[in-house]
Design a protein that fits this description.
The protein has about 230 residues and is an alpha/beta fold. About 40% of the residues lie in helices and about 15% in strands. The chain is built from 7 helices and 6 strands; from the N terminus they run βαβααβαβαβααβ. Strands 2-1-3-4-5-6 form a 6-stranded parallel β-sheet, sandwiched between helices. Helix 1 crosses helix 7, helix 3 runs parallel beside helix 4 and helix 4 packs parallel to helix 5. The longest helix has 22 residues. The chain starts with 5 loop residues before the first strand and ends in an 8-residue tail after the last strand.
C-alpha cells in the first residue's frame, strides 16, 4: 500500500523512535510529505486535551494522511520508575501512567483519526509487550503494564468503530523491542543486543507495509510477529 505516493504524520517526533520514523519517511521516495508533532516544538501535551485538539486542527490542511504513527509514551514519570512490588504502588503515579500512556493516546486517536485518508491507511501506536495480559510471566510494573493493557483495549475498541466507515483501515499496536533510548536506559544498561532506534523502526515499518487488513486491531512486534493480547 506504500508503493505509490503517500503522506505521513508522526506524533512524538523528537523521541528516539519517533525521530527514526521521521527519518525513514524522509528517506522513502514514495513519501511526499511527513508532518511532525512534538512536545518541544508545538507544545503538544498528552496530559492536556486542548493541545491535542489544537494540533489535530493545525494538521488538517496538511492531510489527509495515509499513515499516522503515535510514538509517544513514558516509562519513568517525574523520576519514579516502574513499581517492583505492591508496596511500591502509589495512587498518583498510577493515575499519571494511565493519563499519559492510555488516555492521552486515546484522545490523540479521537482527534487525529479523522485526518486519515479513505481506503487503505494505517494508524499505529507504540505499545509494549508488557501490556499483554497473557504474556505477563514476571509481574511488577503495575502502572505501566496496566496502562499499556488499557491502551491496547482502546485501540481494539476504536478499530471496530472506525472500520465501520473504512474497512481498509489498519489500527496497530506496535511493540518496538528493547530499544536504546532515554526512556529505557535506566532499565537496559546491563542488557546485551539492544536495538538501535533505526533497527527497530526498520522492522516495524516493514511489518506495517505488509500487514493485511483485518477486522479489529493488530498487536505485532518489530519483527512483524503477532503478540497475544
Amino acid at each position: 500500500m506504500f508503493e505509490k505516493p503517500y503522506r505521513a504524520l508522526v506524533l512524538g517526533a523528537t523521541g528516539a523512535i519517533g525521530h527514526a520514523f521521521v527519518q525513514a519517511f524522509q528517506a522513502d521516495a514514495h513519501c511526499t510529505h511527513v508532518e511532525t508533532i512534538s512536545r518541544s516544538a508545538q507544545g503538544f501535551d498528552l496530559l492536556d486535551a486542548e493541545t491535542i485538539r489544537q494540533q489535530a486542527q493545525r494538521c488538517q490542511a496538511m492531510g489527509p494522511f495515509d499513515v499516522i504513527i503515535d510514538a509517544t509514551g513514558a516509562l519513568t514519570l517525574e523520576g519514579v520508575g516502574p513499581e517492583k512490588s505492591l508496596a511500591s504502588v502509589q495512587e498518583d503515579v498510577l493515575l499519571r501512567q494511565f493519563h499519559l500512556n492510555a488516555i492521552g493516546p486515546l484522545l490523540a486517536l479521537r482527534h487525529f483519526s479523522p485526518l486519515l485518508a479513505s481506503g487503505p491507511s494505517i494508524y499505529a501506536k507504540l505499545s509494549a509487550r508488557v501490556g499483554s495480559i497473557s504474556d505477563n510471566q514476571k509481574g511488577g510494573w503495575y502502572g505501566y503494564r496496566a496502562a499499556k493493557a488499557a491502551l491496547n483495549m482502546y485501540l481494539q475498541t476504536a478499530a471496530i468503530e472506525l472500520q465501520r466507515k473504512n474497512p481498509a483501515l489498519r489500527v496497530v499496536a506496535l511493540q518496538p523491542g528493547t530499544v536504546r533510548s532515554e526512556l529505557s536506559k535506566r532499565f537496559t544498561a546491563s542488557l546485551p543486543n539492544l536495538l538501535e532506534p533505526q533497527e527497530s523502526v526498520a522492522g516495524m515499518w516493514s511489518a506495517l507495509r505488509t500487514l493485511p487488513a483485518k477486522a479489529g486491531a493488530s498487536f505485532v512486534d518489530h519483527k512483524g510477529e503477532p503478540i497475544d493480547w
